[in-house]
Specification:
It contains ten helices and no strands. It is an all-alpha fold and 203 residues long. It has a domain of 135 residues: Regulator of G-protein Signalling 4, domain 2 (Orthogonal Bundle), CATH 1.10.167. Helix 6 packs antiparallel against helix 7. The radius of gyration is 30 Å and the shape is elongated.
């Protein structure tokens, strides 16, 4: 609709729109588009929401079972990704997370297939965690440190085995029991047990 006559309603409307800032017009268009999407796809949003709730419920059940299994053994804790994360957070409060980081680095190291990468990774791990005065030096004895140093000359996937075993034993006998007694784990354990009881009462 166009009009060149003075006083024409269409002409007044065009002048009014032209006077508006461009950002206002852009926002209006964006709002219209969003409303159109919501009005035309209500059932999609409903299905997505239901699916998310089901997945969330499943994850909660899995995590509840996991949390309670962590106290069965140190191996159970290390097998759980969320358990390793929770244990790592606890170790940070004791300023000893380098022990777990070293253990994880060794686990990753064992999966390396390239001999070139094996050698470079071995040197990097040794320099970061094992050598004397390393930035994140782990608590191992001098003899184990020297054995590991010698292993670097012909790096294999087993060159950190002894140092890793010593660090693991230290965590299992020292840090792990304290983790189970910590307020953070006790709280997680109570919540997990509560969810388990609630689930049984509804079945």
């Amino acid at each position: 609709m166009s009009c060149w006559m003075p006083g024409c309603p269409a002409l007044s409307m065009c002048r009014g729109l032209a006077a508006l800032p461009i950002t206002c017009l852009e926002r209006a268009k964006d709002l219209k588009t969003r409303l159109g999407i919501l009005l035309h796809k209500p059932e999609l949003g409903h299905k997505t929401g239901s699916s998310s709730k089901l997945q969330l419920g499943s994850r909660r059940r899995d995590s509840s079972r996991d949390v309670l299994e962590w106290r069965e053994s140190f191996d159970q804790l290390l097998k759980s990704k969320s358990g390793v994360n929770a244990f790592h957070t606890f170790l940070k409060t004791e300023f000893s997370e380098e022990n777990l980081d070293f253990w994880l680095a060794c686990e990753d190291f064992k999966k390396t297939r390239s001999k070139t990468k094996l050698a470079s990774k071995a040197n990097r791990i040794f320099e970061e965690f094992v050598q004397s005065e390393a930035p994140r030096e782990v608590n191992i004895d001098h003899e184990t440190r020297e054995i590991t140093r010698k292993n670097l000359s012909g790096a294999t996937s087993a060159c950190f085995n002894e140092a890793q075993a010593k660090t693991r034993t230290l965590m299992e006998k020292d840090s792990y029991p304290r983790f189970l007694k910590s307020a953070s784990y006790q709280d997680m354990s109570r919540q997990a047990a509560s969810r388990g009881t609630s689930k049984r009462s509804h079945t």
